[in-house]
Amino acid sequence: MRINKYLAHAGIASRRKAEELIKSGQVQVNGKMMTDLAYQVKAGDRVEVDGISAYSEEPVYFLFNKPRGVISSVSDEKGRKTVMDYFHGVKERIYPVGRLDWDTSGLLLMTNDGEFANLMTHPRHEVEKVYVAKVEGQANKENLRPLTHGVRLDGRKTKPATYSILKTDGVKKTSVVSLVIHEGRNHQVKKMFEAVGLPVQKLSRVQYGPLDLAGVAPGEYRKLSKKEVSQLVNMAKND
């Protein structure tokens, strides 16, 4: 396996970033600095990055239905529950692809493939994602229309989104809205709804590209098929 791919599969960095590590002299193979970008890692080779051992596992990909109140992180210094608490039977060193807020539930991808994770989260390659939000206020065409043109958040305008009003409650003055976005900025969906006067009470990601949560209960996960992984990669590259 070519060394940059090896490092990507080890979860160190994307292939491009791995090449930068090699060029900067941070990668050693069998105790010697590696400068050959085309080097093929062989069985028994000891690969290190800045003196820390890196080993490549077979890439694995999971779809996880993250419950609310769970941190999208491998560990938490405050001792709070993380997504890793649900993957005790997985031996590979997996981690979340992107993140969902602590109080946001729904579809989260997990992998040990650094290149795949980078492709899914890179701003140029954002895959379509669908969220369902319960918001304060009465959602209607007038107050949601700005989302279809893009709203300015933190000095930058969002890409146009599409929406569907699923339910309104005139008594409780709440609404349930489905929102489709192609980005993954920090707290983006919550900020978008807040920008149009509809603060989010509850949020869930229900779809990621061609994937949905059918058959996967909160706190459960399943492996992605090769076909599903290929679909995600192709969608990102053709975006």
Automatic annotation (TrEMBL):
UniProt cross-references to SMART domains, sorted A to Z: S4
GO MF, one annotated term: rRNA pseudouridine synthase activity
Superkingdom assignment: Bacteria
BP-aspect Gene Ontology terms: enzyme-directed rRNA pseudouridine synthesis
Entry GO CC: cytosol
Keyword Metal-binding carried by entry: no
Organism the protein comes from: Floricoccus tropicus
EC code(s) of this entry: 5.4.99.-
Sorted UniProt keywords: Isomerase, RNA-binding
A family per Pfam: S4
Name the UniProt record assigns to this protein: Pseudouridine synthase
Keyword rRNA-binding appears in the UniProt entry: no
NCBIfam families, per database record: pseudouridine synthase (TIGR00093)
Stored PANTHER family: PSEUDOURIDINE SYNTHASE FAMILY PROTEIN-RELATED, RNA-BINDING S4 DOMAIN-CONTAINING PROTEIN
Protein family per UniProt: Belongs to the pseudouridine synthase RsuA family.
Root EC class: isomerase
InterPro entries with a match to the protein in the record: PsdUridine_s_RsuA/RluB/E/F_cat, PsdUridine_synth_cat_dom_sf, PsdUridine_synth_RsuA/RluA, PsdUridine_synth_RsuA/RluB/E/F, PsdUridine_synth_RsuA/RluB_CS, RsuA_PseudoU_synthase, S4_RNA-bd, S4_RNA-bd_sf
Domain RNA-binding S4: 1-68
